[in-house]
Amino acid sequence: MGWGKKRSKFGRWLDSTGTEQEEFMNLSKVSRNTVSKLCNDNTYIPGTKVMKKVMDAVRKIEKKRSMHDFFDI
Description:
mainly alpha, 4 helices
């Protein structure tokens, strides 16, 4: 981080929890590429299956989070 790349809401949240991308990848069972997109691409919105995996993992870290906290949908 810090190479001028703007973090997404998801990326900033992940940073604030102290969770590494690698750790989230293992927790959510989504690919490294997907986790990277989630953290760095403000326009990326995952499909239904990936969204469910992501949100299930998010709620293991912080129970009261909603997909609307991270994605403009």
